[in-house]
């Protein structure tokens, strides 16, 4: 069920093979909550304990991407897919871990705006902050059309202290 990554992981020398986790979940609020819980559980099994910076950021990013998949990317009767890929750097080169999160849904016609086009919402707006949160927490993120039936929104998170300039570009740090 794993798919080939069309956008490469950062140029740091990474240990191969990376660790992979993929699961299909129902496109419901329950499925979105389960995605977040499974993410922190899987990271803990991979040696990244609960309540660490990387685990906490991953949980928030998965929560936002899964909520978007179940709200904006939902097709009745079709699931969304969560994929986690953890790569470790060789020789302790920073960042020591890079986590790629991918959430695939069944609405390729509903793509979010590219990262450079995100704009903050008004303070009283009930929605519109999810991808800004992702941009703040991730090293980089984006979307890709997998085929004519699915799209994937992905985000990469580096270990603490090694975030990219994505959030700074939006004035969010």
Key attributes of the depicted protein:
173 residues; alpha+beta; 5-stranded antiparallel sheet; 4 helices; 5 strands; disordered N terminus; disordered C terminus
Verbal overview:
With 173 residues, this protein is α+β, with helices and mostly antiparallel strands. 28% of the residues lie in helices and 23% in strands. It is built from 4 helices and 5 strands; from the N terminus they run βααββαββα. The protein has a 5-stranded antiparallel β-sheet with strand order 1-2-3-5-4, with helices on one face. Strand 4 and strand 5 form a beta hairpin. Helix 2 runs antiparallel to helix 3. The N and C termini lie far apart (36 Å). The N terminus and C terminus are likely disordered.
Summed up, what is this model?
The protein has helices at 29-45, 53-71, 130-137, 166-169, and strands at residues 19-25, 80-88, 97-105, 140-145, 151-158. It has 173 residues and is α+β, with helices and mostly antiparallel strands.
